[in-house]
Design brief:
alpha/beta, Chemotaxis Receptor Methyltransferase Cher, domain 1, 2 domains, seven-stranded mixed beta sheet, three-stranded antiparallel beta sheet, 10 helices, 10 strands, about 20% strand, binds S-adenosylmethionine
Length: about 270
């Protein structure tokens, strides 16, 4: 089943406007990720499927499309320089200066949860027996409901936890009867997963000490990235940090660029 130009344009324009994801040059990818689903949903062409999807006020069909079109690739210890900054600079500094003993961290575009759980593990490992004195909240958000559902369970294959040190595999995972591994409750309970579309205003109660938005903005165009970096800025505390993917750039000059892919709000 092929998608014609008119349907491709109306779908990709909608996705770009609502979610920021730019798929304009990805006709083949859009077609291959959706064709089988369109057929299984009982339609023999994209036009009828999209008519029904856009008419569905519940938003369920659009959510199904998003589940198929987002790229959720992620893994533990991805771009480990950020975690080095976290344990060698960010946490020691906050431990020294932050008398409230509260930290608010946001993994924006968390996919299957590897990133926020990884942060929770580093925090646990860093504080050790001092951890009970700290209230470290990690918010993890995404637009893919599939990814969020998987993330909440915190279950990963043996091969996907291989990147973590062996001691951590033992300390932070429980082996399940089917051979997969589940993140232990003490780490799972540190992370709250929520649906949030980064194109929409940020209306969380707290402001953040650290935001990780890595390998998400790569799918956004420049104006979208700049609007988003401004919204991040407005929702960050004084002396807080933003980690972005190493292939990504923002040109918001209110941030101080610490090293590539790490920005500080003064
Ligand atoms: C490649 S994954 C990155 C996961 C993780 N941050 C990492 O670096 O490994 C990109 C994630 O961004 C999410 N995403 C894309 N557009 C988004 C939007 N408008 N709002 C929230 N999340 C979005 C996707 O659903 C996907 O799970």
């Amino acid at each position: 089943m092929t998608i014609n130009t008119e349907d491709f344009v109306r779908l990709t324009s909608f996705i770009k406007q609502k979610y920021g994801i730019d798929l304009i040059n990805k006709q083949q990818l859009v077609q291959s990720r959706l064709a089988l689903y369109v057929k299984q949903s009982g339609y023999d062409n994209f036009t009828a499927f999209l008519d029904a999807a856009f008419a569905d006020r519940s938003g369920v069909e659009v959510a199904n499309i998003i589940n198929r079109l987002t790229t959720n690739h992620t893994y533990f210890n991805r771009e480990s320089q950020h975690f080095e900054h976290l344990v060698k600079y960010f946490l020691p500094k906050k431990e020294k200066e932050n008398l409230s003993h509260q930290l608010c961290i946001w993994s924006a575009g968390c996919s299957y949860g590897n990133e926020p759980y990884n942060v929770a593990m580093f925090i646990d490992d860093y504080f050790g027996f001092r951890k009970p004195a700290w209230d470290c909240k990690i918010l993890a958000t995404d637009i893919s409901l599939n990814a969020l559902e998987k993330a909440k369970k915190g279950i990963y294959s043996a091969s996907s936890i291989k990147e973590l040190p062996e001691a951590w595999q033992k300390k932070y995972f429980t082996r399940l009867p089917d051979g997969n591994y589940q993140v232990v409750p003490k780490i799972r309970q540190e992370v709250v997963f929520r649906y949030h579309n980064l194109m929409e205003p940020i209306a969380f109660k707290k402001t953040f000490d650290l935001i990780l938005c890595r390998n998400v903005m790569i799918y956004f165009d420049e104006p979208t990235r700049e609007h988003l970096s401004q919204r991040f800025y407005d929702n960050m505390n004084h002396d807080s940090f933003l980690y972005i993917g190493h292939t990504e750039i923002i040109s918001n000059n209110k941030f101080e660029r610490v090293v590539p892919a790490i920005y500080r709000k003064p």
